[in-house]
Structures are given as structure tokens and as C-alpha cells.
């Protein structure tokens, strides 16, 4: 399974300086989506889902027969 992280959408760099460990957790979670694109605890529709990773919310899209994971948004939960 392929996955794509769109840098302009994700903007993980804005969190990397203040919370490098949290950002690492996000990338590990996104890597796990390659094996299980709809993990327990994922919410949303059939193609657009969100997961919570620590204080972050990751919104991602699943598309194509080969299952391409595109991270749409990364933000901190309030």
C-alpha cells in the first residue's frame, strides 16, 4: 500500500519545534495506516477518516484500488 503525506496540507513543521515527540508519534501512526487504513477508533465516512494521536487529530483520505493514504489535515485538539 502506498501513502502520501502532502507537506503543504500537513504542516507538521509548525509542531516539530515545540513537540518533536508528538510529531514522531503522528508519523508512526500514519505509517501504521499503510497496514490498517481503518484502525479501531477511526471516525468518519468510508473514504475520509480521522484518528487521534495524543493531542493531535489527523484527517486522512483513502482513495484508489491500491489504497492511497493522503493526510488532509493535522491539527492540535483543544
From TrEMBL:
Pfam families documented for this protein: ParE_toxin
Record's protein name: Type II toxin-antitoxin system RelE/ParE family toxin
Species, as recorded: Streptomyces radicis
SUPFAM superfamilies, alphabetized: RelE-like
Keywords assigned: Toxin-antitoxin system
Tree of life domain: Bacteria
Amino acid at each position: 500500500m502506498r501513502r502520501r503525506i502532502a507537506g503543504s496540507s500537513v504542516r507538521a513543521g509548525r509542531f516539530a519545534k515545540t513537540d518533536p515527540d508528538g510529531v514522531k508519534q503522528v508519523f508512526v501512526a500514519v505509517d501504521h495506516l499503510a497496514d490498517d487504513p481503518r484502525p479501531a477508533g477511526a471516525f468518519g465516512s468510508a473514504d475520509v477518516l480521522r484518528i487521534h494521536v495524543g493531542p493531535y487529530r489527523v484527517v486522512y483520505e483513502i482513495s484508489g484500488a491500491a489504497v492511497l493514504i493522503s493526510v488532509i489535515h493535522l491539527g492540535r485538539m483543544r
